[in-house]
Amino acid sequence: MTAGVFALALAFLIHSISVADSHAKDDSDAEEVRHRLVIQVSTDDPRTQTIALNNAVNLQKHYGIDNIDIEIVAYGPGLGMLTEKSSVMDRVSSLSLQEVAFSACGNTMQTIEKKTGVAPKLIEGVGTVQAGVARIMELQEQGYSYIRP
Asked: What is the pTM of this model?
């Protein structure tokens, strides 16, 4: 083997080891990342609400419950998802015990109360925020990823 071919082979080997090492570091860094997600629910469509809940469950399975923060924010017609009359009430209750945060829009609740004379009764474990849209914006400013199923 000539010196030039040997030097080329050695350079290739060193480069390969360097690339493999950087990929190993990238993989370990990915494991240490704390993922954060906000999910918007602003529709009374049961299918969409189920998809939002499925997204939360699937991401907890994918990353591990201790590696992801999830908050589902409901406002407008989507607020019904977080009330005691919700068709997904049992799932919301269960997920709230499994580290998924649920936030109900206070503005929507006030509007409903003005129209009906009765404040909506929220599922146990659901919190309230002054404005759902503002909460989504604030979470995004804190680095949360955003989806709307």
From this structure: 0.79
